Amino acid sequence: MKQSHFDRRLSVYYDELKWLYTELYGDTPLLQQLIDSARQFAASRKEELQALDLRREADPDWYRRSDLVGMMLYTEQFAGKLSGIEARLPYLQELRVRYLHLMPLLKMPKEQNDGGYAVSDFRQVDERIGSIDGLSHLADVCRQHDMSICLDFIVNHTSDEHEWAVRAKKGEPAYQAHYMCYDTYDIPAEYEKTVPQVFPNTAPGNFIFCNEMGKYVLSSFNPYQWDLNYKNPAVFNAMAENLLYLANIGVEIFRIDAVPYIWKELGTSCRNLPQVHTVMRMLRILAKIVCPAVIFKGEVVMAPREVAPYFGAVGKPECDVLYNVTTMVCVWNSLATRDVTLLKWQMDTMDALPPEFTFVNYVRCHDDIGWGLEEKSVAYLGFDPLEHKKFLYHFYTGDFPGSFARGELYNYDPVTQDARSCGTCASLCGVEDALASGDPAALDLSIRRHLMIHAYIASLSGIPVIYSGDELAQLNDRSYADDPVKAKDSRFIHRGKLDWERADDRRDRSTVPGRVFSGLQTIIRLRAEHPVFSADAKEHTLDTGDRSVLAFRRCGSGQELVAVYNFCEEPRRVFLPIHGSFRDLFSGTDYPAGNAIDLDAYAALWLLRQ
User: Fold this and answer.
1) Which residues of 140-157 are buried (b: 16+ CB within 10 A; e: fewer)?
2) How many CB atoms lie within 10 A of CB 387?
3) Please, what is the angle between helix 325-337 and helix 440-458, to 10°?
4) Please, which residues have CB within 8 angstroms of residue 126's CB and are 6 or more apart in sequence?
5) For residue 566, what is the enclosing H or E element?
6) pLDDT at site 382
7) Up-side HSE of residue 49: CA atoms within 13 Å toward CB?
8) Cα(first)–Cα(last) distance of the chain, in Å?
9) Which helix (H) or strand (E) holds 286?
10) 233-249 vs 274-290: helix axis angle to the nearest 10?
């Protein structure tokens, strides 16, 4: 039975896989070696995973329904170890979490590991977090609770402590060929002319000199993260096999990290090159042959026009899901400016994409907020793009008059004056400032902001994902500054341990955690109960006549819903071009057609047509 399913799937994809592989690597026996390896992974796949493969082949849209809600968390910050997560599953079930993104937990250096994004072994869990057997067990338990494990697959680079890098340092040519190594600086100097720096302040340049090898090594992110050489077919085969190994452990969703960077060519930016899509398509094909239950979530933090191609061409998909990073940035821009114009434009752009494109929607994550707004759009509004960016990052550090936020800068570049922003959702929404000042009115507004933007992302097409701690309005953790390993990376301000004493207050609605937790429970429950929130619903924005108010209509599964959001602290009254009678799912209030809609500060309405 195992063999017949593998052969059936291979027959569908073999010609395309061979063509793509040969296009990159020429006629090589490594293709047959890869197929033989894939066959072995298929044969060793657990029976319950094979059954899941068949169910999802029959139901390929399983991840696009309204009842799929995610949470992303660091295992050690949430529960200490993998075994601790199993004990906390009832907590996650209170929020109906069915997509559990465990932040990087594979073996990593003890100190310089970029939060786990420097992997030393793709087939071992970091011993401080657990074991590979523990990960497999947790995946099995989660599956029994209808919960899918998502794991980062760091495709662009390894740690310099990975076996491949260690053997390269020892002078083994085969492993030096796994990376991009050069005897002199001549070729690196040519790359530096056209390749942007990822971290110009904390990790300037794109190359490091390795004393052990006496060679220059391409290292786009940090000096201890060596970029892999995908021009070498042995690298592609090895990474594909690592992915299939983790799929057989029970990982169902792979967050493919730093996708645009994986192919390098002189004279280019080494971003978004055509070969990247060939590599991603081949990985997708191998997954569909061996483990079709698996989906790919691409991390493509690029301009909007550069994101959509990572879904792939018609009939030849690459990523199943992509991060909706620009919408996240536009949300924070709208809170600071009290103006939804850019957010509305972003929605219109997204709504014009093919309906099968699915995005992960979120307000915060483990990373910073990069202010990569479309400069032409910012200029159209009458703002200087650089000055507007400076306004935003000063606003979210609390340095701008009237700001409610308390965050920190990340990777400030004094030359370009570029910077990004860090902080938890609650601290950026004003909860921290209001608690410090003892102002109950300001605290109420900050909680309203927090819940309103979470309601917004939950009403969009795609998968809403909560960043761990935001369900409790957890505040910034500034203790990172006392840790010499973390002190230079302000992203750790929003990577603190989950406060389980704070979590104990989640059922007391007189507390901040209680208000936020119960509010999110309501948002998630209503979303799950109404299929109009499924990804296949049609969506388009509405004109409100007020730049502080965003409204849009969703139609699908026989339902019509109008979502309305007030992005400012002042009450608003708007008239919407809608017909019929509507009822707000949150309050139960009826809204007859043709009447004005009155909105409180930071109000969120989900108006379902009756």
Assistant:
1) eebbeeebbbbbbbbbbb
2) 11
3) 150
4) 105, 106, 107, 108, 116
5) strand 559-566
6) 86
7) 28
8) 50
9) helix 274-290
10) 40
Q: Which residue has the tokens 């794109």?
A: 206
Write down the number of H helices and E strands in the chain.
22, 28
Q: Which two three-digit tokens encode residue 420? A: 């990004």
Q: What are 599's strand-pairing partners?
A: 572
The region that residue 114 occupies, defined by phi over 0 for left and psi between -120 and 50 for alpha, beta otherwise, is: left
Determine contact, residues 129/179, Cβ cutoff 8 Å. Answer: no
Catalytic residue, from 152, 160, 299, 433: name it: 299
SS3 265: coil
Q: Could you state, in chain order, the average pLDDT of each consecutive group of 10 residues for the chain (610 residues)?
A: 81 98 96 98 97 97 96 97 97 98 97 94 97 98 97 98 98 98 98 93 92 97 97 98 98 96 97 96 98 96 80 92 94 97 94 92 96 84 92 97 97 90 98 98 98 98 97 97 93 97 96 98 98 95 97 96 98 92 96 89 97
- Rounded to an integer, what distance in angstroms lies between the CA atom of residue 265 and that of residue 523? 46
Catalytic position from the list 76, 114, 257, 367 = 257
How far is Cα 311 from Cα 277, in angstroms, rounded to an integer? Answer: 9
Q: What is the DSSP string of 423-452?
A: --HHHHHTHHHHHHHT-HHHHHHHHHHHHH
3-state DSSP assignment of residue 257: strand
Q: What are the strands, taking DSSP E only, across 63-192?
A: 69-73, 97-102, 106-107, 121-125, 148-154, 157-159, 181-182
The per-residue pLDDT for 56 is: 98
Per-residue confidence (pLDDT) for residue 381, from 0 to 100 = 82
Phi and psi at residue 118, to the nearest 5°: -115, 100
Output the pLDDT for position 121: 98
The question of whether 257 is a catalytic residue gets the answer: yes
Q: What is the pLDDT of residue 3?
A: 57
